[in-house]
Design brief:
Layout lengths: L2 H37 L2 H6 L1 H14 L12 H18 L3 H10 L1 H6 L5 H30 L7 H29 L2 H17 L12 H7 L3 H13 L9 H22 L6
Helix pairs in contact: 1-7, 3-4, 3-7, 4-7, 4-8, 4-11, 5-8, 7-8, 7-12, 8-9, 8-11, 8-12, 11-12
């Protein structure tokens, strides 16, 4: 065995050990975050009220409007994936306020002095946000079943929906973490979060197709990650529902956005305590 190979083996072992350490640390952070949810599930229950109101009230009323082109599906079916995406957005976009609260309690300081990889903090919280989104998915499926909406019950489709929701939740939770690292106060965060929520929700294809939008709004929708989440969910969830883009394109765009945001958040996270 040559000396070059001998030198390469320790480097490969170190890289493998670092990767295993990252996964272990991420799992530990995610476990802590999940325990918070399980100990106090009232937040999840209260967030279930919003999609019920949207589908039962808003959806029932606007399903009588014939001017919205929804293809071969009813308007109620058309908007169901959009309401799921909206629930994901509203649950994840204020995730950063918990980070500010943890900083005020000194929890962030303790985490940062540990030898854990900074990326594990971001990834662990992103996984936790995905779990919260999965709960919202179950709620939407139950509401759709009660309303008689034609859903695709293929296990692969359902698995794709849960994966898409988890990825979308991770995107908006990470984006929320970036905002928290920049503003560093709960009051400013709430103001910015409320400012961002409505444009993100309405500048996409959740409750109306992109074809109805003026050109400038359609251009904004194309850089909105919620557009690609709704598009993927509509093709996966609804009988007769069609995606504008292919599923690999939708998931690919969301994955790239998440990687970029996670990289930025990992660099900004230590600045939260300054």
């Amino acid at each position: 065995m040559t000396s070059a190979r001998l030198d390469a083996q320790p480097a490969a072992w170190a890289e493998s050990s670092a990767l295993v350490g990252l996964f272990t640390q991420t799992a530990a952070i995610a476990e802590v975050e999940l325990k918070k949810v399980l100990r106090d599930p009232t937040e999840l229950l209260t967030r279930a009220v919003q999609p019920v109101l949207w589908l039962v009230v808003f959806g029932q009323v606007f399903s009588r409007v014939r001017g919205i082109p929804t293809g071969n599906v009813s308007y109620l079916a058309f908007m169901t994936p959009g309401i799921l995406a909206q629930s994901v957005l509203f649950a994840a976009i204020f995730y950063g306020i918990a980070i500010i609260w943890e900083r005020d309690l000194g929890i962030v300081h303790k985490l940062l002095v540990s030898p854990a990889n900074r990326a594990s903090f971001v990834l662990g919280k992103a996984i936790s946000a995905g779990f919260r989104g999965s709960i919202q998915t179950v709620i939407i499926y139950l509401i759709a079943l009660a309303l008689g909406i034609g859903m695709r019950w293929n296990p692969l489709n359902i698995a794709g929906v849960f994966f898409g929701v988890a990825l979308g939740s991770a995107i908006f939770a990470t984006f929320s973490l970036i905002i928290a690292c920049i503003v560093k106060s709960r009051e400013r965060f709430m103001g910015i979060g409320q400012l961002m929520t409505m444009p993100l929700f309405f500048a996409n294809n959740a409750i109306y197709p992109l074809s109805l939008m003026p050109g400038w709004l359609r251009a904004i929708a194309l850089i909105n990650p919620l557009t690609y989440l709704v598009d993927a969910l509509r093709g996966l969830m609804i009988q007769g529902g069609e995606s504008i883009h292919s599923l690999p394109a939708d998931f690919g765009v969301m994955a790239v956005i998440f990687i970029i945001l996670a990289t930025i958040a990992s660099r900004l996270y230590p600045t939260l305590v300054r």
